[in-house]
Amino acid sequence: PAAAMADEGAFSVVVADPPRKGLGLQVVKRLAASPTVRLLLYVSCNGASFRCDAEFLMERGFRLTQLRSYDSFPGTSHLEILGVFERRTAVSHWHR
User: What is the pLDDT of residues 74-87, one digit of tens each?
Assistant: First the structure.
């Protein structure tokens, strides 16, 4: 639903908290192709899927400007990651 709204140009800021598997390439492509999305706040519970999605986002015109980790579950090995991505390039035909 959020990716469809991004397609319509409804938002300039998106907050994503995907499941452990991450956003995935199709959602990243749709966010990157949106003419209005300028800022993405990405919360992740899986470092590997975050890294994969971050690479896709940066290849498609976003820049990782802030990265923080949070120990929301003390006593476990789980961390939450917050990445702030800002669009660095204008949306063009090659993003689609």
Answer: 888 889 999 999 99
